[in-house]
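Sharing a chain and its predicted structure for anyone who wants a worked example. Both blocks are below, sequence first, tokens second.
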Amino acid sequence: MKNKLLLIVLDGVPWHNWRTLFGNLEGWVDSGEARVWKMRSVLPSISASCYASIHTGVVPAVHGSTGNANVFRLSVPDIFSQVRASGGVTGAVTHSFWSEFFNRAPFDPVRDIEYDEPESGTINHGRFHTMSGYGHDNQMTPSDADLFATLTMLTERFGLDYGILHTCTLDSMGHRFRHECEAMDQAIFRMDEQLAPYITRWRKAGYEVIVTADHGQNDRGHHGGRQDTQQDFALYYFGEGKSLISEDTLLDQVQLAPTVLNLMGAEIPETMKGAPFLG
């Protein structure tokens, strides 16, 4: 592979919160270690639909996942399959929806919560969580510190070329507390604080890193429709790739998958029509 890359998806963080509350990420932008763009999600701006579009580079009307109740094994090419076709090793530390979309469905927690399958054509090393029992009063989210450590373990144990981490903590906090409150300020502070040392460690290990979201969230704690606060979020890039666009360009979410493949030197399938913005 041309480059190794880790994609970090912090679920449900709107643009404003990224640019005002993530002190470490913004500090790296100021120092030139990172670059940042605004990206707009596909519609519907609901989690499962966005997960599928992040990795396939096509809109929900094409891949078919129209919401969280419509999760199945997708049939279009994705980042995992393209990296594997190029000889790379892949890993995922994510919600179980990712395993269902890109490995096998339905998700069997005993079989699928943890697996190492070197011959898989998609995800070689998976560590998943289901958030079973999730609701307003009980978020059922794993510790983000544990997730960051787990992804790091996979990179160091198995030599991942591509890895993805996805956490729902901030999305769940936003649904419960909304965004203009002390609870959300503190949740983002903790996320930023826990993530920062791992970004340093991953960069020292030779990884390019993208930190972003799947969608935003409005002031009522909602997303799914068409609204800047529901759709727009930040994308931070740590790496040596050449910018192919200006940093004030509004990115489309379907550009992310071909950009990742472009950075890694993997083939971009014909289904991915979005223009890469880094290369």
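Comments welcome. The chain has a mean pLDDT of 96.
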